[in-house]
């Protein structure tokens, strides 16, 4: 019999796998704990970033970027990391400001080309506007402040700088609305007037703007942006001479060069005429001496062009010893800043007046002897000559003491538009127009006398009468000296010689008529150009009228000078009239040579003079009684 214990089966041991499982789980938990902590930290950082880049409220989105945020600062701040305000915003800003949204609102204000032009032409404005834009839009955040503390705002002086420096450039771009009105209540509310306001008082205005070259056709003003010059926009100016820039490239330079060449030819031919009447016999007596004085004045008038060689810039632009070529790149020449211009302009004033008054004297002398049969001018020649020399001296001294001599256009200095009428055109008009009318009267008077003489000759021939003629007794005649004189009459001799005498007088006086006509045409063309065309251009340039501003805008847009010249063509002096007025003056010596110098009689007298000088015998028999006059 077995026992009970023997009957029970042996105990089977339980499996211990759960212990291993628990151990593995514990190990994994220990390993994953750092990863979970890191993930939690990352999630927290992302959550914080989401708070920083919170999209601004509708009130902030609708506000102008020039209007600063006025909401209270939170405890969270951020560091500015953009490009627009780099170097300006160096302080923490509220984390509630969305920098991307701000940049999106700022970018439409100006195109990159406009901003570059603003930086190149108005660097002080560009700097002031950028400071205002940044300091007003990005107030200073106090990291130690509470949620109710307000951020530090911009100073009033920053706003005033924009008003001071940006009015002209923004008007130029038709953007006056970009200039803040510092006295406006809405702007005043956004400005901090305390001593702790945001400003950059220690940083010079304009120093934060990169150096950008001026747009094409404009040059940098070495005197700075704030120098007020008619041809400057900020620190970028039209190069001297200003008028050349408003025409296709090289057009005015070509005209000036051609004018200089023609004037040189005129001066040489005028000198030939002057030497002819100075050296040849019987040319220094009245009335031939009138032509001598006229030729002397004309020679020096035309010879003034030699002051403009080798380059007209030496009389067009102010002298500047610091410049590489000795000329100021911007300022045009005046009596005060260019000695050569002052000398040339003074000489031109004197000799142009002198030339015209002696030409008028010549016409008046012929009129008085032919129409009035008076030798008054010959009898009082010394007094009348003194008047002819004093006249130009008076107006020249006035121009000198009034400092009216300056460069306006062409290749020479003359007189400013402001004084041109009073010192030049009005006095000259008082000489030229009456002289032309007087000579027309003289011309028709002689023509009428010629016709009467012809009729008288026919009547005398038909009656067989050879003793009567024009004028009866006491009539005036044409003297051997070349003018009509009361000492001689046409009453003696036969009709046929008297007829030839009058016809010859008519042939001689056409020279004076041509002289009066050329003076009238030259003066009228020059006056029309100077008074109407050039004065309108100078006024528009000085006042920076709309067409001038449009030309600058065209150059800023990087267009060529030829393209921009077409856009302002109606507002600048007409080029054909400029050519006409310049060439009429330049060819004055050539015309006078054709009228008075291109004569066979003068060539014969020169041949005789050279023959006599070289030891030959001078032929003193002068058969031409009119050679003495012309």
From TrEMBL:
Keywords: Disulfide bond, Membrane, Signal, Transmembrane, Transmembrane helix. Residues 1-38 form the signal peptide. Residues 252-557 form the G-protein coupled receptors family 2 profile domain. Residues 47-73 are annotated as: Disordered. Residues 72-200 form the FZ domain. The chain crosses the membrane at residues 260-280, 287-307, 347-368, 380-402, 424-444, 512-532, 577-598. Residues 54-73 have a biased composition (Polar residues). InterPro entries: Frizzled_dom (IPR020067), Frizzled_dom_sf (IPR036790), GPCR_2-like_7TM (IPR017981), GPCR_2_secretin-like (IPR000832), GPCR_Fz/Smo-like (IPR050949). GO terms for biological process: cell surface receptor signaling pathway. It holds the Pfam family 7tm_2. It is a multi-pass membrane protein. GO terms for molecular function: G protein-coupled receptor activity. SUPFAM superfamilies: Family A G protein-coupled receptor-like (SSF81321). Its main location: membrane. One of its GO terms (cellular component) is membrane. It is found in: Membrane. This is FZ domain-containing protein.
């Amino acid at each position: 019999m077995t026992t009970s214990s023997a009957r029970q089966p042996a105990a089977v041991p339980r499996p211990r796998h759960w212990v291993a499982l628990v151990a593995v789980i514990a190990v994994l938990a220990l390993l994953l704990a750092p990863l979970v902590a890191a993930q939690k930290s990352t999630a927290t950082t992302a959550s914080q970033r989401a708070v920083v880049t919170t999209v601004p409220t509708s009130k902030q989105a609708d506000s102008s970027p020039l209007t600063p945020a006025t909401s209270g600062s939170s405890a969270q701040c951020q560091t500015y990391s953009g490009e627009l305000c780099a170097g300006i915003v160096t302080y923490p800003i509220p984390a509630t400001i969305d920098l991307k949204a701000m940049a999106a609102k700022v970018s439409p204000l100006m195109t990159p080309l406009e901003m570059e032009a603003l930086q190149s032409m108005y660097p002080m404005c560009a700097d002031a506007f950028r400071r205002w834009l940044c300091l007003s839009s990005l107030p200073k955040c106090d990291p130690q402040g509470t949620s109710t503390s307000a951020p530090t705002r911009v100073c009033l002086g920053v706003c005033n700088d924009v008003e001071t420096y940006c009015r002209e450039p923004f008007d130029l771009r038709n953007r006056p609305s970009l200039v803040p009105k510092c006295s406006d209540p809405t702007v005043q509310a956004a400005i901090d007037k305390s001593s702790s306001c945001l400003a950059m008082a220690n940083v010079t205005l304009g120093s934060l703007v990169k150096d950008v070259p001026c747009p094409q056709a404009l040059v940098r003003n070495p005197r700075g942006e704030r120098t007020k010059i008619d041809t400057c926009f900020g620190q970028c100016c039209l190069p001297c001479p200003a008028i050349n820039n408003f025409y296709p490239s090289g057009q005015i330079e070509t005209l000036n060069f051609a004018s200089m060449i023609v004037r040189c030819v005129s001066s040489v031919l005028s000198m030939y005429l002057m030497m002819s009447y100075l050296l040849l016999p019987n040319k220094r007596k009245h009335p031939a001496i009138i032509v001598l004085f006229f030729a002397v004045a004309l020679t020096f008038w035309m010879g003034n062009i030699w002051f403009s060689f080798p380059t007209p810039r030496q009389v067009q632009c102010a002298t500047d010893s610091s410049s590489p070529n000795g000329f100021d790149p911007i300022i045009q020449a005046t009596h005060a800043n260019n000695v050569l211009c002052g000398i040339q302009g003074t000489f031109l004033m004197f000799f142009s007046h002198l030339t015209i008054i002696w030409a008028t004297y010549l016409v008046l002398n012929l009129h008085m002897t032919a129409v009035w049969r008076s030798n008054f001018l010959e009898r009082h020649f010394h007094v009348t000559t003194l008047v002819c020399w004093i006249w130009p001296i008076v107006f020249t001294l006035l121009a000198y003491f009034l400092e009216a001599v300056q460069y306006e256009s062409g290749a020479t200095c003359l007189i400013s538009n402001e004084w041109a009428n009073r010192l030049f055109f009005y006095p000259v008009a008082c000489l030229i127009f009456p002289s032309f009318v007087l000579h027309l009267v003289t011309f028709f008077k002689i023509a009428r006398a010629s016709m009467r003489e012809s009729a008288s000759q026919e009547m005398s021939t038909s009656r067989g009468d050879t003793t009567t003629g024009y004028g009866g007794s006491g009539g005036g005649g044409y003297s051997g000296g070349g003018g009509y004189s009361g000492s001689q009459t046409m009453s003696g001799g036969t009709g046929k010689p008297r007829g030839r005498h009058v016809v010859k007088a008519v042939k001689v006086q056409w020279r004076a008529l041509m002289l009066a006509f050329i003076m009238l045409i030259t003066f009228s063309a020059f006056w029309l150009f100077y008074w109407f065309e050039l004065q309108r251009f100078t006024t528009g340039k000085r006042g920076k009228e709309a067409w001038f501003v449009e030309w600058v805008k065209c150059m800023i847009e990087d267009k060529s000078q030829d393209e921009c010249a077409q856009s302002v063509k109606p507002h600048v002096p007409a080029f054909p009239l400029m050519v006409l007025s310049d060439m009429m003056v330049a060819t004055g010596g050539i015309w006078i040579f054709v009228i008075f110098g291109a004569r066979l009689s003068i060539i014969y007298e020169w041949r005789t003079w050279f023959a006599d000088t070289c030891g030959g015998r001078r032929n003193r028999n002068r058969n031409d009684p009119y050679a003495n006059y012309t």
